[in-house]
Specification:
This protein has about 325 residues and is mainly β. It contains six helices and 22 strands. The protein has three domains: about 10-25 and about 235-325, PDZ domain (Pdz3 Domain, Roll), CATH 2.30.42.10; about 40-45 and about 135-220, Beta Barrel (Thrombin, subunit H), CATH 2.40.10; about 50-125, Thrombin, subunit H (Beta Barrel).
Length: about 325
């Protein structure tokens, strides 16, 4: 399920959400000021429905009657059911499920980046889910209070409170080397990796990933600013769908066009750098990442409508994405990089 563009121009309220600055994304329905700090209990209440327990079950090769399950935590990053988590939950394979609204929903692999230890999954629930609000890890300060949510040992969603202990820390795990991590005082246990690190406005500022095993309360999270950079490459909608638009948009805030390639479908349609994309086809685009998720349904050679904001004016343009050879998936579950 997606948000669909209305038949009439976008309302002033929606334009205000898209162009809002200072805080990342619209406020939850029951909050009038998205920049106001909350208590840990309020952060948990606002973000618990955007956090899921992930489980990947596999049969024991020596004893088919025995099932082993690798647990982790996932973060809903798009209402259509896209979930962000750590890639290492897939180290043993298995069939995946996400705990959403009290029931297990099958989920499939969309993309994996083992070097960054990030993965994207898709759960089809038949209804819009509540995505987490993205903040900015560059705004964090040492000593700042933070909240983590996760599912330790698959027990269910739990909350812990701590502080940012250090910034720019490097560490390594059994899976990869992590540069420039956020160090926190909140414990990261098996099953909680992949869960959200949140500031006191309820915004995602990091992805809890690993811990220092021989110490107490030394956890590490991937900064959300690095996640923003990684997701367009991981999703790679043009490579998957076999098309080329010839434009790039920023993932840091509104979907602002940063570059238009010469002799491209975007250039032919009159798209310019500085335009803000508000819609792709029938999908509303609030932020830059929404743009890339909306492109996952696009195919080469089929006309595509874009709704743009330019200098305060709404523009509707139609372009035809050029056909290219799609990239074959490395595995049936999704592309792995």
């Amino acid at each position: 399920m997606h948000r669909h563009l209305p038949a009439i121009p976008l309302s002033a309220a929606l334009l205000g959400i898209v162009l809002a600055s200072g805080c990342a994304g619209p406020a939850p329905a029951d909050r009038t000021d998205p920049c106001a700090p909350m208590s840990a209990a309020e952060v948990y209440r606002q973000c618990k429905d955007s956090t899921v327990t992930l489980g990947f079950a596999r049969k024991d090769a020596a004893d088919p009657k025995t099932t082993h399950t690798e647990f982790g935590t996932g973060i809903i990053i798009h209402e259509a059911g896209y979930i962000l988590a750590n890639a290492h939950i897939l180290r043993h394979g298995g069939t995946g499920a996400a705990g959403i609204a009290g029931r297990d929903v099958p989920c499939r692999v969309v993309a994996v980046d083992n070097k960054r230890d990030l993965a994207i999954f898709k759960a089809d629930t038949g209804r819009p889910l509540r995505p987490i609000r993205l903040g900015y890890s560059r705004d964090l300060t040492v000593g700042e209070p933070i909240v983590t949510i996760g599912s330790p040992f698959g027990m269910g969603i739990s909350v812990t409170v701590g502080v940012v202990s250090a910034l720019g820390r490097s560490t390594k795990s059994d899976f990869t080397f992590f540069p420039d991590m956020i160090q926190t005082s909140t414990p990261i246990n098996p099953g909680t990796s992949g869960g959200p690190l949140l500031n006191m406005r309820g915004e995602l500022v990091g992805v809890n990933t690993t811990r220092k095993s021989e110490a107490n309360d030394i956890g590490f999270a991937i900064p959300v600013d690095r996640v923003r950079e990684a997701l367009p490459e991981m999703l790679d909608p043009e490579g998957r769908g076999g098309f080329r638009l010839g434009l790039k948009v920023a993932t840091d805030g509104p979907a602002t066009v940063t570059a238009v390639a010469a002799d491209s479908p975007a250039a032919a349609a009159g798209v310019r750098p500085g335009d803000v994309v508000l819609g792709v086809g029938r999908e509303i685009v609030i932020g830059g990442l929404d743009f890339y998720f909306a492109l996952l349904d696009v195919r080469g050679g089929e006309p595509l409508a874009l709704r743009l904001l330019r200098g305060g004016r709404l523009l509707d343009v139609t372009l035809t994405p050029a056909k290219t050879d799609p990239k074959p998936p490395a595995k049936a579950g999704g592309e792995r990089k």
